[in-house]
Amino acid sequence: MKRRDFLGVAALGATAGLVLGAQARAADSNNAAPIATPLPTAQPYKAPGTVRELPAATMVDLEREAAQALAPGAFAFIARGAEKEWTLRENLRAFDDYTLKPRYLAGQKAPDLSATLLGHKLSMPVITTPMGAHGLAHASAEAGTARGTHMAGTLMTVSTAANTRIEDIAAASPGPKWFQIYLLENDQAGSKKLLQRAKAAGYSAIVFTIDAFAPGASDAVERLGFTFPPNLPLVNSGTSTFKRSLSWDDVAFIKDSVDLPLILKGFITPDLVERALQYNVAGLQVSNHGGRQLDGVPAAISALPGIVTAAQGKVPIIMDSGIRRGSDVLKALALGASAVALGRPVLYGLALGGDQGVASVYGRLKRELARAMSIAGVPSLKDISGDLLKPAA
Ligand code: FNR
Q1: Under 8 Å CB-to-CB from 244, ≥6 apart: which residues?
Q2: Catalytic residue positions, numbered
Q3: CA 270, 159, 252, 213 torsion: positive or negative?
C-alpha cells in the first residue's frame, strides 16, 4: 500500500517503492535474483508558461484542452475525484434538478452583476475557491491566478497548500484576498503564525475547511503513480501533512488566533449550521470539495437549500462544487447563495493562458450569467429569488 499525504498524492518516493515491490514479487515467483534496473531519476516538473487570452471556450472545452496541456498525473490530480466519482458527476448533474422560470415581457434591461461580499465590491458574485498547488498548472502559479482574478474584478481565496508565499501572492495583485487554513499537525504555534502572517499580508478573511481531515483519493492519480514534484514545495506550511482530527475547538482556536472574519467551508448538511452561528462565523461555504473527499455526499447544489434555510439569512452563504455555466450561478443564487466559488475552471484557464487565461474564464462566465439574467428578466442580483426556479419534473 502506498503511503499518501494529506493532499491525496502518493508520497514522494512511492513510485520508486512500487517499482522495487514489483521487482521483489517477480524475484519471488521466478526464484531468481532481482534485476538491478536503475530507477528513473525524478525530473523537475515543468508547468506550461503560455500567457494569452483564451478564445470564448466553454468550461467544458477548457477541461479537454487542459488535459492536453498538462502532464497526465498533474491533470488527474486537478480534475479527478474520490472513489467512484459519483459526487464529482453529481455536482454537475444536479443543476438539472431545477428548471428556470423566466420573467418574459417584463421590460428586460442590461443586467447589473455587481455584488458585495463581506464588504468587498465585486464585478460578479463569483470568486476563486481555495486550491493547492497552482504551480502544477502554470509557471506563474498563484501569482498568475491572483492577477487573473483581479483582472476579472473579483476575489481570490488562497490555500495553505499554495506553491507561492502568501506575502508574494498578496504583492502580485491588489485585489481582495482571503486565506484558507489547513491547521498544521501538532503545531499550534505554527498555525497561529500562519494565520497572523495572512492578516499582516492584507488577507481580509480566514476560510477554515472542515471536510478534508483525511487524505483525498483518486484512483487515476494512484494508477498514474503521480508524486508531488519536489520542485513545487508547499512553501507556506513546509508540509503537506495537516491536522486530521478537527473539532469545534479548532474553530475557537482560529478565532482566538487572528482577528479576521471566519468562513467555514465544507457544509453539505444543515445539522452543523446552528452551532457554527454560535461561533459568530462571518459566512458558510457549501461545498463537497469538488467531489475530492467523501464520495457519496450530495451535490453542493442539492445541499444548498437546506443550509440556506438553517442559516436564516444570518450570514452570507457561498457555494462551490460544479459551477461551470452562467445558468448554474443563476440557479445557485436563486436557491439563496450570496455568491459562488469557482474551482477547476480557474486552474484550466491558468494552465492554458496564465493570468489572461484566468481572466478569460471569468469573462466567459460573466457573459453567460449576464445573458441568462437578461433573458430571464432579472435586472440585478437582488431581483433573483426562489420563484425563478421550479423542480424539474
Ligand atoms: C481543491 N480544493 C481545495 N479546497 C480547500 O479548501 N483547500 C485546498 O487546498 C484545496 N485544494 C484543491 C486543489 C485542487 C486541484 C482542486 C480542484 C480543489 C477544493 C476547492 O476549494 C473546491 O471545493 C472545489 O474545487 C470546487 O469544485 P469545482 O469548481 O472544482 O467543481
Answers
A1: 6, 185, 213, 214
A2: 289
A3: positive
**What is the Cα–Cα distance from 202 to 11, expressed in whole angstroms?**
33
Look up residue 97 and give its DSSP letter: G
Q: Is the pLDDT of residue 251 over 90?
A: yes
* Average of per-residue pLDDT across 157-178: 98
- 3-state secondary structure labels for all residues of 166-184: HHHHHHHCCCCEEEEECCE
Q: For the segment 221-234, what is each residue's pLDDT rounded down to a tens digit?
A: 999 999 889 999 99
**pLDDT above 60: residue 8:** no
**In terms of DSSP H, where are the helices of the chain?**
14-30, 59-69, 72-79, 86-93, 141-151, 166-172, 188-200, 219-223, 248-257, 273-278, 300-311, 326-334, 344-376
Write down the residue that cell numbers 467512484 correspond to.
84
Q: Which amino acid is at 179?
A: F
Nearest residue (by CA) to ligand 1, atom 18, is 131
Report the alpha-carbon distance of residue 103 to residue 107 in Å, rounded.
9
For 263, phi then psi, to 5°, come to: -115, 130
> What percentage of the chain exceeds 90 in pLDDT?
83
Ligand 1, CB cutoff 6 Å, lining residues: 78, 91, 129-132, 159, 161, 180, 209, 265, 287, 289-290, 292, 320-323, 342-344
| Three-state DSSP class for residue 85 | coil
Residue holding cell 478534508? Answer: 212
